[in-house]
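Researcher: Re-running this chain for the archive, since the previous output was lost when a drive failed. Same request as before.
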Amino acid sequence: MRANYTIAVVGNPNCGKTTLFNALTGARQHVGNWPGVTVEKKTGEYTHAGKQVEVVDLPGTYSLEADNEISLDEQVARDYVAAKECDLIINILDASNIERNLYLTSQLIEMRVPMIVVLNMIDVVAQRGLQIDQQQLSHLLGCPVVAISASTRQGINELKTLINQAVLESPVPHLDIEYHPAIEQAITDLSVALEQKSLEYQCDLRWLAIRLLERDTLARKIAGAELVQRAEELEQVIEQASDDEVDILAADARYGLVNKISHLCVNKKHEVSRDMTNKIDNWVLNRYLGIPIFLLVMYLMFMITINIGSAFVDFFDQAVGAIFVDGFSIVLTSMSLPEWLVVLLASGAGGGVQVVATFIPIIGFLFLVLSLLEDSGYMARAAFVVDRFMRMIGLPGKSFVPMIVGFGCNVPAIMATRTLESRRDRILTNIMNPFMSCGARLPVYALFAAAFFPVGGQNLVFFLYVLGIAVAIMTGLIMRHTLFKGDSMPFIMELPNYHLPTIQSIAIRTWDRLQTFLLNAGKVIIPMVLVLNFLNSLGIDGSFGKENTQKSVLSEIGRTLVPVFKPMGIREENWPATVGIFTGILAKEAVVGTLDALYTQLALEGVEQEPEVFNLQQRLLGAVMTIPENLLAVADNVLDPLGLNIGDVSNSQSAADAQDVSRGTFGEMQARFDGKAGAFAYLLFILLYAPCVAATAAIQRETGTKWAIFVVAWTTGIAYMTATIFYQLATFNQHKESSVFWVVGLLSVFAAVIFSFWLTARVQLKKELV
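Model: Regenerated structure tokens:
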């Protein structure tokens, strides 16, 4: 059903704009991107009094000023309002801080668009001993004013009724802002020349003139080169007459109006004691307690996201695998379809769906906790607390949260970078994030610890985690002085009042983010999984069903590429290790399954194995039973959120049982790897090389294809260099000349790459200056 009319919600960040949007639309929402930019676009619908209304949630912005240095959010909001694509603007204000919010209102008034003003958080106003004269405010602004509390849904029905009425009446504000006499004269001079442009683009003449004087990019585009030059000449006249710049004079006039309106409409009935926000901030932002409290909050977030979220991973993995892979395969086989098509659809596409599904609980819990922290008001405080430390590597404090989450899973960590305003900061954080050793790598560490480091395995795992952090910091420092030269954006953030989040708001926000991941990341994950599974199932003789055997095409590719990995200690007879690297791209924990299957197959090749009987009901029941079992184990992980406890690896049989691998796998690994040096070099590569397909898809979604490719190349290059240099130094006495060649050669290549980054940044800087 087509909407009868469209409204757009405009307001400052933290004014309750999204809460109002959710209160109006409920679950009837759609998420996309604004045309030509990566700024998220949210729309929704609702029906009231027989009228279908489309609601557009514009990005939060403090003003509609848009020059070349302003964020994409402000540009999108300004362009949408100026284009008059909606029937009515809903300007929502934080009524408890009305003076600050009215600056945006003053700019909307100048655009002469139909609008109503919504005073949100009216319950907080009363708690603070304030009283707002709505009738007087409506009279001064020249448009309807309504008071609501979006979080409690107080006044929502009245707002919907007013919207229906206002759309018919089109209440355009009539208030004029009085500027400095020199500006008023310039507006008069420009108005004659701009009249035709104003009619052509259907924008207010006075607004176009003042915005042209303020060098607004849209106004300059509308006016054309000749009038832009005339406006710049008038700017010089204004500055000589007033001894000040036009934009400062214009802002001063708007703030003067805002101050006058606030003074006339807001009354303080009585004094109130310090509110709860200030009391909490005395602890949260305390010089000595701020960091410990922040770490505690991050610990709780990490524990909930990873430990509780992971308790549901087995359910999704087994249930979706039973339905979309094994069950689907049986259905397709019963239809007498060719085996290659069964492999493509079931193991390939179905396996891709299975991979995507396994991230649902972790990502869902991450966004649930992040939404709670954001809505409560704590996230802004957390960013300020760690800002000083993060700036040492060129990132703002808000980057710390995604880095921490990366220890559990890189996918939700990458998704969490969308909270960063600067694209530079998002890209740099995503380049560093894959080096945070995720939980999926831990089974690989445990397997090798049991096979090669039965004594001190715990120290090995801890060292790998620390090394990952060190490489991430090194990457940040390199990028900060080359491709991302300079400091991060100035960190100016309003500290919103603490709020008690509503269930509806949290649920909608979490679901929005989750479905965005499923739809967008799945487009990349499923095709990649399909290709890998196809190669893993296709035999070198053209037959199918060769999964994880030495007769598959993927295994043949692994054998072919062994020479590439020989410098890091992988010998020709150890080709399964190369295959494990490739399947690790699918999912890091797949390395264990691949190595176990291939090494076991080498020992058992030629022995017939009975096929497993498929029972969907039992498989689904088994999947459900994993939930209580895993939840019971959560209590054991409270003091080990990273899962660093790899268990007893001194006993090979117990270690094999814990890792769900054959005991014979240990013997094959010990025989085929070049001792502890070769095994540790392999672990270094697994720690640092390309992120899994899910993480790569998330990076592509957040930063674009170019940077996703860069991350894969950079991480793999660092992994290869680190693993090779370690192995060559560890076995230096066995091949001194070749070791010197590899160490010097790789360090030289690394230096050349860094130099090329520096040159690229310098060339780009020259282009910007020109």
